[in-house]
Amino acid sequence: MVVKNICCLGAGYVGGPTCSVIASKCPEIKVTVVDKSVTRIAQWNSEKLPIYEPGLDEIVKARRGKNLFFSNNIEKAILEADLIFISVNTPTKTFGNGKGRAADLKYVEGAARMIADIAKSNKIVVEKSTVPVRAAESIMNILKANNEPGVSYQILSNPEFLAEGTAIQDLMHPDRVLIGGEETPEGQLAIEELCSIYEHWIPRKSILTTNTWSSELSKLAANAMLAQRISSINSLSAVCEATGADVSEVAVAIGLDSRIGPKFLQASIGGSCFQKDILNLVYICESLSLPEVAAYWQQVIDMNEYQKTRFTAKVVQSLFNTVSGKNITLLGFAFKKNTGDTRESPAIHVAKTLLDEGASLNIYDPKVEESQILYDLTHPSICESPEEVKKLVKIYPDAYSATNGAHAVVICTEWDEFVTLDYREIYRSMMKPAYIFDGRKILDHEELINIGFHVQTIGKRLPRPLSTRMWSGTAVV
Ligand code: NAI
């Protein structure tokens, strides 16, 4: 079989960009991305796409209506497809067994049942969602138990390693593509079919093929190892603040060791999109009766929580231990720059703590919609009184209006535009003493201190503004 028709179930942060790149690199293949959500598909078919990724708009515009389609007609797309990507969400379970840790596979299961109900010809089903090890077995069980006579399936694992904010770049030039499949002749054939799609733009040596379980576990392992690096440097940032060392200097010094390497050693406010996958890994380890392994990875998550709590506590403490009635500006709400995604964003944690302490919040993010911010902050897991939150939170269209009259500014996302703001102007319009808490270590702290700001950041002690020092040189904020 030569794949001519691809269907992708799930038009999200992974399904949308991945299939747009496939359509752009394989013009002879028809790619249809389907979703249950009518709104999401309408957005994919509009001028304003539902997600922001640098470079995505151009690709979608070039291929949409030619060999790239976004549709709610799931049945038609499944019937036509030779190969189906399952790219649906796998959030953390919020109830029942494994609540708060295990991956909720209800959407993956729903997708598998839909395929089984609809398919009338052989399909290669590709698990792109991040799933627990041996999820492919469950998908196969569903497909086999429900399939039409004469229809056969091959299940592949093809986890996605893209990072939001750089999705298109990551998809165009991946470090590797990983494909896991059955070690049978049919399994190997299916792997080859998927390889031939990626080989349109990725050198064969960068396409790694493994057995299904190695592929599934590798995705969780990669995220766990990345998160571990961040938690490690964040733990050291606390030591830096307590001793006078500078975590940026430490990161450079250790990153120059080729066994360690320089990437992913940026200390920050904490929070990342890895949490749900590591929670899932911890849960799997517990289920496999490996409590020591589970505890080891749990500590990576705990350190991430500690970092967020530590940072927010510092904000409250610096503002004379009370933020009640004070106006605090959050610059940035997305979990990282160049995306509008707020899932697991540290800004939510910061906002919640400050709201609990009675602060009024002014929030500005270049790409997150007002409705999303209010949705996140009024979610039942975050607040008990949505009306109260709505009274205390105001969303602004730019950084200057958001900081006007504020007691403090907290940098929650490392958007480039925050680096080049006119901080003299911002200082003039703020209440005094004016505070900046740089949770992302992106600002020129010396310049801010010279302007007159009280500045706090992660992993480094900073001097007070000159005008407030009682004696020179030694005082710290
Ligand atoms: P998402 O929440 O943005 O998109 C998932 C979409 O699937 C939603 O639009 C939902 O309506 C749709 N959906 C659910 N069930 C469906 C069904 N039966 N039929 C059709 N559509 C259905 O999720 P996202 O971020 O794209 O993640 C997808 C998977 O990829 C997850 O397992 C995630 O862990 C993994 N992943 C995500 C990355 C990221 O940076 N967002 C990176 C690498 C992997």
Task: Describe the SSE topology.
Blueprint (H helix, E strand, L loop, with lengths): L4 E5 L5 H11 L4 E5 L3 H7 L11 H8 L4 E4 L2 H7 L2 E4 L19 H13 L4 E5 L7 H12 L6 E5 L9 H6 L4 E5 L3 H14 L8 E5 H32 L3 H9 L19 H13 L3 H28 L8 E5 L14 H11 L3 E5 L5 H8 L8 H7 E3 L3 H5 L4 E4 L11 H7 L5 E4 L6 H7 L2 E4 L20
Parallel strand pairs: 1-2, 1-4, 2-3, 4-5, 5-6, 7-8, 9-10, 9-12, 10-11, 12-13, 13-14
The site of 1,4-dihydronicotinamide adenine dinucleotide has 27 residues, from α5.
Pfam family, one: UDPG_MGDP_dh_C
Enzyme class: oxidoreductase
EC number: 1.1.1.22
Domain module tally: 2
Instruction: Report how far the terminal alpha carbons are from each other.
Output: 67 Å
Q: Please tell me the overall pLDDT.
A: 95
Overall, the morphology is elongated
Report the top-level CATH class of the largest domain: Alpha Beta
Strand line-up in the sheet with most strands:
3-2-1-4-5-6
Strand share of the residues?
5-15%
Number of helices: 18
The CATH superfamily of the largest domain is identified as NAD(P)-binding Rossmann-like Domain
Which consecutive residue ranges, at least 5 long each, have pLDDT under 50?
472-477
Q: Can you tell me the CATH topology of the largest domain?
A: Rossmann fold
What percentage of residues falls in helices of 4 or more residues? Answer: 40-55%
Structural class: alpha/beta
Main sheet makeup: 6 strands, parallel
